[in-house]
Amino acid sequence: MTTNGGQEPVFCTVVPPHVLDRLARSEETALADAARKTLQRDAFERTHRRLTTVIGAPTVAAPAGAEAEKPHRTIYDARHGTDLPGRKVRDEGSEPGKDATVNRAYAGLGATFELFSKIYGRDSINGDGLPLDATVHYDRDYNNAFWNGEQMVFGDGDGEIFLDFTIPIDVIGHELSHGVTQYTANLTYFGQPGALNESMSDVFGSLIKQYTLGQTAAEADWLIGAGLLAPRVTGTALRSMKAPGTAYDDDVLGKDPQPATMDDFVRTGRDNGGVHINSGIPNHAFYLVASELGGHAWERAGQIWYDVLTGGELTQQALFVDFATLTVAAAKARYGDSGDELQAVLKAWEQVGVRTL
User: Considering 45, 160, 175, 292, which one is annotated as catalytic?
Assistant: First the structure.
C-alpha cells in the first residue's frame, strides 16, 4: 500500500519534458514527429494514471508459493502497440530468449531487486514482495521509459536520438526507484520535493549500475543513461552526477541545463517546476559524499540516503534544506558524531550551497 496521503499520483519518465519539447521543434520532420508523439503518449498515460488512482488500482500481491525475498518478474511485449501490459513473453526463472530487449529488462529488474534486498534489506519495491512487471517494445519510435505507479514500460527509441531504453541498467533502476519513493516518502512531484524525487531515482539508479559492475565510487562514471543516446548526438548521457550540466551539448537536444549548486538554481514553471533540472544539486551532493568516503558508494553514502528515504521523517513537501538536515542526522545516528561520514555529508551540502539546520 502506498503512503500517498491523498497526493496526486506520479507518472515518472526518464527523458525530461524539456528535452522532448526541444526535439518537437526540430526542423527535421522525423525527429519532431517522434518527439511530439512521445509527448502526446506521455500526456495520455499521465491522465490514465490519475484516473486509475481515482477509481482504485487493483492490489497486487506476490503469487501463491512465491519465495520470500526473491524477485517475481514478468516481462510483456506490447508489440509496438500501447495496450498494457501486452503479451507475456518471460516469467520468473525462465531462460533467456532471442529478444535482447526482453532479456535486458528482465536482468535490470533483477539487479534492482538485488541491490535493495541484499544491501538494504528491502523486499522488492514496496518492501513486501511486490511483483515486478515490465512491458517492452511500447509504441513505435517512443522516446521514453516510465514507471506508471504499477509497472515499468520501455520504448525502443527512434534510433536517431534515442536507442532502446533497456540498454542502460541505471535507467531501469531509476524508474523502479520511483516506485520505492512512492511506497515510502512519496515526495510531491513539483519544485524542490520533485527534484528530490528525481534525485533519489538517479542516486539509486547509479548505485544499481555500480553494484552490478562491482565499481567503486572512483571507478564509476556517475552518468545516468550512458549508452542511450544515438551516435549522432553530441553527448554521453541524460545527466551527470559528477558534473551536472555537462551530459550533452547538441545542436538538436540543446545543452544540459542541470545546475550543480544553488547559485545556479533554475526557477521555472515547466517540467513540474524543474524537477529534472534542479535534481542536479542533490545529485552532486551525493556524488561528493560518495567520492569523499571512497569505496563502494552503495555502502555508507547509499545507506545514509536510504535511511532518510525510508526513515519516516522525510515529508512529502520536503525542501533541499530538509533533506540535507535529515542526512546529517542519519549520518550521526548510524556512524556517530565523529565519523568521516558526518564530515563528508556536511562538506558536500556546503559545497552545493544547501544549508543544514
Answer: 175
